[in-house]
């Protein structure tokens, strides 16, 4: 199989777009109410520590991905369990994000069209991309991140008229617990979902690359997410955010400059489709690599389509309706995702350090 | 109806190319895995189309995690 290589810049762009993903139209960390900016700052700082952990694992084993690493460290059986766990997580996440987009398109645009039709087209494009490999995806991200940043900045700039700075006060009125809850929610969705990059990032140029990619990606993605969340809070207020399905989109809908510049929300919708495409593709890539690694195959491309179809099926099976989707995303996701994003990587990191030191001595 | 139609189109469009390629390269293990996963997806999709009631994954995970 041909060795794939992506540059640090491409990797960082991919992580930024991955982080933005579906969080461009969902609100995350709404538990913190008007202190969302504090929760967001705490979440970004804590995530950077977690990302350093991810990078450390990858840099201890250059040119190896997470699946190779657990296979080397934990041996045949426990290694396989870890591979299975992360394959499931990546596949499930791709199904959930696909469902988010299905519901989003179904709610805001194609109301009469069955949800599964846009989902089907979406997953076919993602399958195609994964089949092409990580290089074209990296190049695509490198080009499109510029447009995405411009689109978001323009939207935010136009939103300024609707913002009310008084929404931010009083600070910490409800105490510290809602802020901590909000920060935890932001860490698990969307920041540390970037754990699925670990199986995908075996194609880096040098040993230091994982640090650069993860931290620059977090910096760009986290900053944009911070801006979007705070501007939505300032535009809508925390009460409206908590009762709206897609608050960021709802905030963009209120933009009206005179009678000639309206319906700007379409820009946000298109931008979120771009970022969602990257998120689903990366999840699918990780899941496909995982299943082929489980069965000892070198090439992963032949499994893209079946795994895409499983992801599509999971998107249908995930929730009964949009209300369940929002509720589960807000309350249950953090408990479900925390082990995959923090606990298992911590175990792998500890084992990797021990393994590395032992091998260094001998 | 439209759902079934689209599914069938999607399966037919992409599947033969993969299968022919794998068969030509004599990759039987790959073919078995390919068809197993694809069949699983197809069977579940047909069950959903035939209105078979599945418990949602969200509910199932909540029950497993004790959050329900």
Folded structure, characterized:
The complex is a heterodimer of chains A (362) and B (68). Chain A is mostly helical and 362 residues long. Chain A has helices at residues 8-20, 36-60, 66-108, 116-132, 134-159, 177-188, 197-200, 209-236, 238-242, 247-253, 265-294, 304-318, 322-361. In chain A, helix 2 (36-60) runs antiparallel to helix 8 (209-236) and helix 3 (66-108) crosses helix 12 (304-318). The longest helix of chain A is centred in the first third of the chain and has 43 residues, at 66-108. By secondary structure, chain B is mostly helical. In chain B, 79% of the residues lie in helices and 0% in strands. Chain B is built from three helices and no strands. Chain B is flat.
Short synopsis of the structure:
The complex is a heterodimer of chains A (362) and B (68). With 362 residues, chain A is an all-alpha fold.
What order do the helices and strands of chain B follow? HHH
How much helix, percentage-wise, in residues of chain B?
Answer: over 70%
Strand content of chain B: under 5%
Task: Kindly estimate the percentage of residues of chain A that lie in beta strands according to DSSP.
Answer: under 5%
Compute the CA-based radius of gyration of chain B: 17 Å
The averaged pLDDT of chain B comes out at 78
Structural class call of chain A reads: mainly alpha
Which percent range fits the helix content of chain A?
over 70%
On the 0 to 100 scale, the average pLDDT of chain A is 90
Largest interface: A-B, 32 and 33 residues
What quaternary form is this? heterodimer
Spans of chain B of at least 5 consecutive residues whose pLDDT stays below 50 are none
How widely separated are the two ends of chain B?
Answer: 35 Å
Q: Total strand count of chain B, please? A: 0
Order of secondary-structure elements of chain A: HHHHHHHHHHHHH
Q: Which overall shape of chain B is indicated by the principal axes computed on the Cα atoms?
A: flat
Could you name the ranges of chain A where pLDDT drops below 50 across 5 or more consecutive residues?
Answer: none
* Net shape of chain A: globular
